[in-house]
Write a structure and sequence with these properties.
The complex is a heterodimer of chains A (188) and B (202).
Chain A (H helix, E strand, L loop, with lengths): L1 H16 L4 E8 L2 E8 L9 E6 L4 E6 L5 E4 L7 E8 L2 E7 L18 H10 L5 H28 L3 H26 L1
Chain B lengths: L9 H21 L5 H14 L3 E4 L2 E4 L3 H8 L3 H16 L7 H23 L4 H28 L5 H11 L1 H21 L2 H4 L4
Helix pairs in contact in B: 1-4, 1-5, 2-3, 2-4, 3-5, 3-6, 4-5, 5-6, 6-7, 6-8
The chains are: A alpha+beta (188), B mainly alpha (202).
Chain lengths: 188, 202
């Protein structure tokens, strides 16, 4: 009991404290979708429920984030998917994954998809590379860079900038100023 | 402290909105021209407080300031908090537009309770009692916020005691920090500009 309490304090507590918004960031790698869940200060959302829905509302699967806030699944169908993250204590977030971004559903093949590193290694060993394999290598490399860039852009979009904060304060003064103005005019 | 969109069912959202509307109506009635600027200042302080992360132990926590806003504004805390939450929802996606009413209740009701419980002590003659009342107001604001979040989440099938306990344990450091901060601010205001505290009550 004591042990679980300590685990709770170390693992769950930090994420709860930082919570007022949770984010999901998804990217497609080969034939699976990888999602990263984090609170707005960047702390990972650990061991929480994630559900995948069709847009019609039908639930397809239920997952759990790992200790680093990641989840991974292979989409069973190629259509728009809704991913909902339940972070507990009233925190929830959802995101739509467009069908166009999803990997093609591959028919079961005897050949397993290769790891990008492995491919490059075999590549150096044999001088002749067939076109399909070369294309795959390039695609993998581009995808990797692209995903990193996308992650950066999404995170930047969601972070709070000083300009927004100052703008917010300005809006508040503006709203109350308007209120003052209207009341003053009514009085006169 | 902010409940996200899509968590709570519509009837509960509506009841939250009705409560917040009622609170704001009373607050706006009490808000005359003289103390409108004060409400605006407290509203923006509240707006920014949620963005201030303090490093505590292994993690960072953020301020809420519902106790302080309550002591200084009383019923007027409702419009102040509503406006701040609206902008937090629009600009930072904290909470959300549909949960605006519910979240206003989560932070506004503790503010009002703090006002009713502690304002007269904060305004009292004794400096030490005022500081203690300030501390209690800061801590109570967070504590009651957790209780109200748990109450709202009952509607989603969560167990009240479980959520409330979890919330209070998780927010214990914030309660202490916010208590100390509120005590300091109250003491400071008493010394520098006591009419800010006294001029509120009509």
């Amino acid at each position: 009991m004591k042990k679980t309490r300590i685990v709770f304090l170390i693992v769950v507590l930090p994420s709860l404290l930082a919570a007022h918004r949770v984010n999901i960031f998804t990217q497609v790698e080969h034939d699976s979708v990888i999602g990263q869940c984090y609170y707005n200060d960047g702390a990972p959302v650990r061991q929480q429920k994630v559900e995948i829905f069709r847009l019609s509302g039908e639930r397809l699967m239920e997952l759990k984030t790992d200790s680093a806030g990641y989840f991974r699944f292979a989409p069973p169908i190629r259509e728009d998917l809704k991913i909902v993250l339940y972070a507990g204590m009233g925190h929830q977030s959802e995101t739509i994954l467009a069908a166009a971004d999803l990997p093609e559903i591959k028919k079961p093949r005897t050949e397993k998809p290769k790891n990008p590193q492995k491919v490059t290694v075999t590549n150096t060993e044999e001088p002749r590379v067939d076109e399909e394999r070369l294309r795959k290598i390039i695609e993998d490399a581009v995808e990797e860079k692209f995903n990193a860039l996308r992650e950066l852009i999404v995170k930047q979009q969601r972070s709070t900038s000083l300009i927004t904060i100052i703008g917010g304060i300005g809006y508040i003064f503006g709203i109350f100023g308007l209120l003052l103005f209207l009341r003053n005019r009514k009085r006169q | 402290m902010h409940i996200s969109e899509g968590v709570i069912a519509a009837p509960v959202l509506v009841s939250g909105a009705v409560g917040a509307f009622a609170g704001c109506a009373v607050g706006l009635k009490k808000m005359d021209i003289e103390n409108t600027p004060k409400v605006a200042v407290m509203s923006s302080a509240f707006f920014v407080a949620s963005l201030i992360h303090l490093p505590v132990g292994p993690t960072s926590v953020h301020l809420v300031l519902s106790g302080l806003v309550g002591i200084l504004l009383g019923w007027m805390a409702f419009p102040a908090i509503l406006v701040a939450l609206l902008l937090q929802a629009i600009l930072f996606q904290f909470g959300g537009i549909t949960t605006l009413g519910v979240n206003t209740m989560v932070m506004g009701v503790p503010a009002l309770v703090c006002y009713l419980l502690y304002a007269r002590f904060v305004r009292g003659r004794n400096k030490a009692i005022a500081a203690v009342a300030g501390f209690l107001a800061g801590a109570t604001g967070i504590f009651l916020g957790g209780v109200i979040v748990a109450l709202f989440l009952i509607s989603t099938g969560e167990q009240f005691i479980v959520v409330a306990k979890l919330f209070v344990i998780a927010h214990f450091p914030v309660m202490v920090i916010e208590g100390i901060l509120t005590a300091f601010i109250v003491t400071f205001i008493r010394r520098i500009k006591p009419d800010v505290l006294g001029g509120i009550v009509k």
